[in-house]
Amino acid sequence: MSRQEIEGEQRYVARLYRRLDELREREAGRLETALSQAGTGHQALLERDVAAARHRAGISRLDSAENGLCFGRLDLLDGGRRYVGRLGIPGEDADGEPLLIDWRAPAARPFYTATGISPQGVRRRRHIRTSGRTVTGVQDELLGPDGGDGALVGEAALLAALSADRTGRMGDIVETVQAEQDRVIRSPHAGVLVVQGGPGTGKTAVALHRAAYLLYTHRERLARSVVLVVGPSPVFLRYVGEVLPSLGETSVLLSTVGELYPGVTAGGEEPPGTAEVKGRAVMAEVVAAAVRDRQHVPEGGLEAVHGRETVRLGRAECLRALERARATGLPHNRARPVFVRLVVDALARRVAEELTESVLGVLGDDGEPFAEPAPVPGEDLDAELLGEEEIEGIRRELAADAGVRAAVDAMWPSLTPQRLLADLYASPGRLASAAPRLAPAERALLERAPGSRWTPADVPLLDEAAELLGEDDRAARAAAEAERRERTALAQEALDTAHGSRSTDLEAGEEAEMLTAHDLLDAGLLAERHEEGDHRTPAERAAADRTWAFGHVVVDEAQELSAMDWRLLMRRCPGRSMTLVGDVDQAGARSGAASWGEALAPHVGDRWRLERLEVNYRTPAEIAEVAAGVLAALGTAAEPPRPVRSTGVRPWHLRVSPEELPCRLGELAAKEAVAVGEGRLAVIVPGARLAELGRAVAAAVPGAETGRDVRLEGTVAVLDVARAKGLEFDSVLLVGPEEIAAASPRGLNDLYVALTRATRRLGVVHTGELPGALARLVPYGEHGECGGHGEHGEHGGHGER
Ligand SMILES: Nc1ncnc2c1ncn2[C@@H]1O[C@H](COP(=O)(O)OP(=O)(O)OP(=O)(O)O)[C@@H](O)[C@H]1O
């Protein structure tokens, strides 16, 4: 590329940065002015908050675009030209063309999808490389009749991105999104979209970019209702955690399913078999039965000491009250007052009746009332002696009586989800009653001492219980609703004032992208945030609220979810606007999905749409070939995804004796750590040997991370397959493939996951026979260290397979 071309782009890019600085300064000035506004009272504070929130969001969006602000240019057949970048920048002239188009805007789409066959009005696509604010290179693709019809868009830029050292944190891919990925990213917001793709097909990257796209396109709705992104583990969430902020998006909550029950930290561990039973759909019935079992009338009915008397209510009457309370259809804790009221009423009438009988002396010689039909609670049997007022007095007395309360509690206790589950797990008798459809051995897996730590598989059960138990919060809710209405009215006034007086000079042109208060906030949100002392962001509020309805839910590694996890997530997304990405062939959890149809049928029937990703961006051809052997052994019909490059380095295997394994592994890890240079190495080991082999590696490679809470901050991490899920590393040393494959019914799937984490190098260390599925590995020493670290060059070419 000529020097002149680069200088030309440098001038344009410099102009963009000048404009960016101006916009930033202007926003900062406006923020300062807004914050210095004197004024007291609710209205003034609201106005100030609206303005400050708008300017802060504007500044943070501008800041996030600092690196790689502009990365592309489209030269159009009609002579027009568009620059594409991380956000839209309006021109200096309010009515003129935008200087930069947001990658998510419709006008930027041909940058990702135009081809020689379908040029979409584009003559040339240019990738602009920058370092800081300096242009370091440009690459052109000519479209139209004379070229540019490769299957990959911007192939050189893509391969450079794929071959770069990994950093331990996933980066965004806005510069090199491929056409098949763009289709998924821009798929309509409504409904359930499933994205199936093999390892390394960019599912995670696509899911996160789709979240950013939806936030851009439906800003008003989603900034308030928040997008939930669910991942398989905390280490995975850390790995992907910078992608959305780097795209300027913060109205997002990243969480594992195990973190979705506010107030519960599910840090406990349990055998996979226990987690599997807890994840089964039948557990919804078990929890429901456990709740019903707590609504219980003893054989003798109710008997309580009231003052110096013993009061009694027959079992039949208690049961009638119980059935009537159940018939309300209210959750347990909210139906409880109905039950209490019915029982106390019946009891009061019984007491009144006995009082009347004793006063009138209508008792027979044997001390029993005459054999008349038994009084029916609720009917007017309160003898003439006692009026309604006196009976109400008795009712109040009984209701306040500790003995009566204890007796009623025993029949219909007020329960928290935690108490319900802890009591259930602690009692084989309760388990037998609530879970007759589980085999005794399966029920035994659920038994647990009270006070044990909650595990991730408990969370959907707690959530299920919370739904069935409910809270008796009627009074609090009515008061909160009245208050909310008042706040919303005030906030709407404030927003209208702010919107009416906003500056329009940043909004020139179709692509103008500066946020206004109305983009960011609506009256409801502002009113909520204005509650006394509550200045949390929508994402923070969502994290603290079990009943939050998210505007869109993205689930990564969705094949891992159990039937009970799905129930929880569907509750969090009543609008069923969801993106579910995963690969059924990578399902390792025993309770994971065997097929998408099976997982989704109970919730959306067949109302979901499927997209497939078929290109493998992560693993080079040499490693992909080995993984394909394992996929074939899995016996699935799935085709392995097609790799886009090769490295010339063959994956190897080395057999060592069990005794020498720790020591040899340390040596090999130290050697690989050198080979990856600035990149990252994962040592993936069988779960049962994580601690032992983690120590061995840490002894040989100082700073190697291991244990339960790996942060991926150093060069080397020792992980089991569950923790490696979704991650990637320049090099992977896989230990004990035979043990991993044999460890669970989904062991081969785990092996497939482990093999596909590497972007460049793979070595397998084993102590037993090498599984047949790995026959394509070459013996250690014959793997061709050509180039060692940095051997990125040659690529297989997308079309060659
Ligand atoms: N268009 C692209 N441009 C640049 N890099 C890409 C592109 N698509 C994917 N990648 C990179 O390929 C790697 C694999 O992507 P990702 O982790 O999203 O795959 P995945 O399908 O989620 O894999 P797995 O199922 O194995 O977890 C990542 O480093 C990602 O950044």
Automatic annotation (TrEMBL):
PROSITE patterns recorded: UVRD_HELICASE_ATP_BIND
Secretion signal, residue range per the UniProt entry: none
Taxonomic superkingdom: Bacteria
List of residues binding ATP: G197, G198, P199, G200, T201, G202, K203, T204
Gene Ontology MF terms in the entry: 3'-5' DNA helicase activity; ATP binding; DNA binding; hydrolase activity
GO biological process: recombinational repair
SUPFAM superfamilies reported for this sequence: P-loop containing nucleoside triphosphate hydrolases
Keywords, comma-separated and alphabetical: ATP-binding, Helicase, Hydrolase, Nucleotide-binding
Domain UvrD-like helicase ATP-binding: 176-620
One annotated Gene Ontology cellular component of this protein: cytosol
Cell membrane recorded as keyword: no
InterPro entries: DNA_helicase_UvrD/REP, P-loop_NTPase, UvrD-like_ATP-bd, UvrD-like_helicase_C
The protein's name: DNA helicase IV
